[in-house]
Design brief:
Blueprint: H1 2-12, E1 20-24, H2 30-37, E2 41-46, H3 49-60, H4 64-68, E3 70-74, H5 80-83, E4 89-95, H6 105-114, E5 115-126, H7 133-137, H8 141-148, E6 152-154, E7 160-162, H9 166-175, E8 180-186, H10 203-213, E9 225-231
Parallel strand pairs: 1-2, 1-4, 2-3, 4-5
Antiparallel strand pairs: 5-9, 6-7, 8-9
Length: about 230
């Protein structure tokens, strides 16, 4: 996904431009730190205290120049208008958040308002059109049958979550003024890997296969996750 995001940034903005990035629901700050290391000004918004602590710890280990380019704000992604003015960012990330939001339209509209004209909105969501894949490949036939007709599921953390369908999100993005520019699949072949599985020796080959599948039909349509990139008009 990081490679996909980099492809979109390079293709949309002049090389060397320092972008204003907002990472909503930044978690432990993996993507935020990566973009700060690349020279961008990054703001991370997160409401979970444990995630904020992990992000601050990771940031503390970075050189001073990177620490100065990244700030962390405690807050909810649905309240971006409380913290920032409209059009304040060139790139807005919202990765792995929508599955925990029962009614995401208001959140998405708020994220779109944060974008400057031509800005990039990057969403990572659970693929509602492929919920039968993981249980089916694991031999859980009852779970696979249930997945065909549902957009809710129990994730690996044991939490009830919600998936999004590509068609629905495409319509939503058009309606909030950040129409879909392109989309990718994420975790096409690796979604059934066990948590904590050892990193394979042929990691680069694995990543090359996932990257190719994530941009190629019909493979990307059955990925566990979808990476959608909208552009503010």
């Amino acid at each position: 996904m990081a490679r996909q995001l980099e492809e979109q940034i390079v293709g949309r903005f002049p090389v060397g431009r320092r972008l204003r990035v907002l990472d909503v629901g930044m978690g432990q700050g993996t993507q935020a730190l990566r973009l700060a290391r690349a020279g961008h000004e990054v703001t991370g918004l997160e409401r979970e205290a444990t995630m904020i602590a992990a992000a601050r710890k990771a940031l503390a280990g970075e050189p001073e120049g990177i620490r100065e380019r990244m700030r962390i704000i405690e807050g909810d992604g649905r309240d971006t208008g409380v913290h920032f003015l409209p059009g304040s960012f060139d790139v807005v990330l919202c990765h792995g958040v929508l599955m925990y939001v029962e009614e995401p339209d208001a959140l998405l509209a708020g994220l779109a308002r944060m974008l400057a004209p031509g800005g990039l909105l990057s969403l990572l969501v659970r693929n509602g059109d492929a919920l039968a894949m993981r249980p089916g490949l694991s031999g859980d036939w009852a779970g696979a049958l249930a997945g065909f007709d549902s957009v809710t599921y129990r994730n690996r953390l044991g939490l009830d979550a919600r998936a999004d369908r590509l068609k629905t999100l495409t319509a939503t993005l058009a309606g909030i003024g950040a129409p879909l520019h392109t989309w990718y699949g994420v975790r096409v072949f690796t979604d059934t890997a066990a948590d904590g599985a050892q990193v394979p020796d042929d990691l680069e080959a694995l990543l090359a296969v996932e990257e190719r599948a994530g941009r190629t039909d019909p493979y990307r349509a059955v990925a566990a996750l979808l990476h959608l990139c909208g552009v503010r008009g």
